[in-house]
Amino acid sequence: MFKTIRDDIYSVFDRDPAARSVLEIIFCYPGLHAVWFYRIAHWFWKHNCFFIGRFISHLGRFFTGVEIHPGARIGNKFFIDHGMGVVIGETAEIGDNVTLYHGVTLGGVTWDKVKRHPTLDDNVVIGSGAKILGPFTVGKGAKVGSNSVVVKEVPPSATVVGIPGRVVMQEEKQEESVRPDLEHGKLPDPEAKAIACLFDQIRALEKKVQELTSRLEERDRTNATQVEQSSQTRQSS
User: What's the pLDDT score for residue 219?
Assistant: First the structure.
């Protein structure tokens, strides 16, 4: 238990440059408090004390603004940055070293009592406001951009953006020593790329139209000259 608590604390040091001391992390990080509320609630849930587990998770939601169902399964070094508005459903499964930013939802798409929430493998990073909906897997080392809506499987080491989420980048291999991160400023923009391609095609078409117009004008001038010369020839004769 103490090792888990220590790992939770030092995961904040690893992923938040604003953290200055252990004391500050313990008292001033609601994302960490939410994880600790969850771990207590989950212990009661596993021991069939369902009401106590739900009540403790409700207290955690009240104090932190983060809603984690006690039935969810969460690994070590889980970090919620800023925290407010995060929702994690009952059948969600989260691996080690996973990072969620504020406003993330790990939700379901059915009312049936089955596996209905996503599974996040190790080292996954989910940007603020993203929605992961459905019982599929987000592969190891994958990244989801802010405000994306993901409704299908994400390959390992892939980067997903947009609504619905689309894979815009995929690394062949990710080094284990690299700290998980999500640099939004470096994410590709598929819409902007598509628009740029359209503009390139429009410019190419405009160039062809100009060339054809010049040829037609040149032909018209040539025909007019020939007609004028023929007319002059007839008049001379």
Answer: 87
Using alpha carbons, select from 84, 36, 39, 37 the residue that is nearest to residue 56: 37
Give residue 232's pLDDT.
73
Question: Beta-strand (E) ranges in the chain?
Answer: 67-68, 73-74, 79-81, 87-88, 93-94, 99-101, 105-107, 119-120, 125-126, 131-133, 137-138, 143-144, 149-150, 158-161, 166-170
Nearest to residue 170, comparing CAs of 183, 155, 180?
A: 155
CA distances, 187 to each of 122, 132, 136, 170, 197 (Å):
21, 18, 23, 11, 18
pLDDT averages per 10-residue partition of the chain, 237 residues: 82 84 89 93 94 95 94 92 90 92 91 91 92 93 90 90 81 57 63 76 89 88 79 71
Q: Which of the following CATH numbers is that of domain 2-183: 2.60.40.10, 2.160.10.10, 3.40.50.920, 3.90.1300.10?
A: 2.160.10.10
Cα separation, 149 vs 145, in Å, equals 9
pLDDT (0 to 100) of residue 13: 84
Q: How far is CA 59 from CA 40, 42, 55, 62, 67, in A?
A: 11, 13, 6, 5, 9
